[in-house]
Amino acid sequence: MQDLPSRPYRRGTCPGVGSSMSTGDGLLSRVRVPGGRLQAKHLAFISTLAAQHGQAVLELTRRGNLQLRGLAPETDASVSAALIAQGLAVAPAEAEASRNTLSSPAADLDPYALADPWPLALALDKAMVKDTAFRALPTKFRLLLNGGGVAHLAAEDADIRADAIMSPDGLRYRLSVAGTAYSSKRLGLCAPEHTVKALLALTHHFIERNSALPTRGRRLLHVLGEVPLHEFQAVVAPWLQPSDTPFATNPSLGPDPGTVIGAQNGWFGAGVPFGELSAETAQALADLAETHAAGQLRLTPWRQILLPGAGAELAGALNSLGLITEPDDARLSATACPGAPACNSGSSSTRTDALGWARAVPALFDGELTIHISGCGKGCAHPLTNPLTLTARAGLYDLIVNDRADPAHEVNTVLTGLTPADVEARLQLLSRILHKARQADETLSQLIMRLDARLLRQALLADASVA
Fold first, then answer.
1. CA–centroid distance for 250 within its chain
2. CATH number where 346 lies
3. Are both 191 and 284 inside the same structural domain?
4. Cis peptide before 168, with omega less than 30 degrees from 0?
């Protein structure tokens, strides 16, 4: 094992229809799916394009979108034109790039949801495509509409968000900026009929103020140091009523999304290992949706696909496709980018390594703890802070706790320069350490979050306990 020097990473690039990005296996194009609502016939169409013009692989992203890999430069334009003709994208590419709205994918199916924000998301999407001012938005900028329920989006990060709550006056959306439902800066409550206007006004103000800064920010949080929060509040003041009520999901559900995999009250959910579907599997899934889900599918930001109205009878068919139908499946704990050789930035075969570690250390890959395996410091598969991360550099791995793939705090890098075999051995040891330190009813994520990184490093190096 050895310490490795840091290296620069290319950041801030998001591919889209009409603006594909070069990767290690060709061009990468992203089909945006506002609200996560996709017709089965459209999934079949996209899978055919992938088989004919790319690597015959589709990827589900952390924003509930679909990606086509391995497109050739000579066919990229025709693929984009075909997607636009099917209504799956818009032209020009700058307008398509502005369509970054995440909306609760199952709110209309979920008996625990407070509201279905899909009509608002659709109106927001149409307005942003029509107004050319929104083409100045950074590609990573995101708006979010959260209807609550089991498949809520409270833990998802956004620049501008609207979270459904029940107030003494009835249903309202709590508007806030820069964060999750728990960490964002609150502006106030807004009636549903005014929410789209308010979100558009906030986005316009961000563009106006961001364009005047010497260094433009990619996210709204980056500009709050220069642009005071009260400015954003003033923009939407005509539509707001103040609220100091902390955001909470249904008390029975907890802060993170509840179980959406398997037979649920309103859908059957299937996890997609690493978010990767072969074109053949995608076509088979589309066929199942036509037969069992009225031709409808829902894509989630957790790389899962929901089949509305379907029941447990689908489990066998989905299992045969290699999809995940049980909430404790070890593959649910592993989040990994394509890695090398598919990505130019990757230096390790991240997904192969991840599957090997999941088989070797099932106690860590328990379906609750998310273990992020990143091919480089960009952390595309999971860009936020995570309890346990393995970041590849020059073919070796760094073990990081409670931080990002490119950690904000050096102390959280517990070990460096690990070969895949080293990682397996250290994960085995980590599993034993956590077993000793674990308190009653404590999840692995909660346990890792409370441990001191320095003590954990000492324990991993000395084979000692941190209990």
1. 22
2. 3.30.413.10
3. no
4. no
SS3 assignment, position 290: helix
Residue 243 has pLDDT above 70, yes or no: no
**Rounded (5°) CA angle 317-321-324:** 85
Identify the three-state secondary structure at position 415.
strand
The whole-angstrom separation of Cα 192 and Cα 204 is 19
Query: Is the sign of the CA dihedral 210, 211, 214, 218 positive or negative?
Result: positive
Identify the CA nearest to 62 among candidates 221, 272, 270: 272
Cα 185 to Cα 349: distance, rounded to the nearest angstrom: 39
Q: Domain end: 216, 241, 266, which one?
A: 241
Residues 127 and 167 in one domain: yes
Tell me the C-alpha distance between 70 and 75, whole Å.
Answer: 11
SS3 state at 404: coil
Q: What is the pLDDT of residues 81-132, one digit of tens each?
A: 999 999 999 999 999 999 999 999 999 999 999 999 999 999 999 999 999 9
The phi and psi torsions of 170 (rounded to 5 degrees) equal 105, -165
Lay out the sheet containing 262-264: strands in order across. Answer: 37-39, 296-299, 304-308, 267-271, 262-264
Between residues 462 and 109, which one has the greater pLDDT? 109
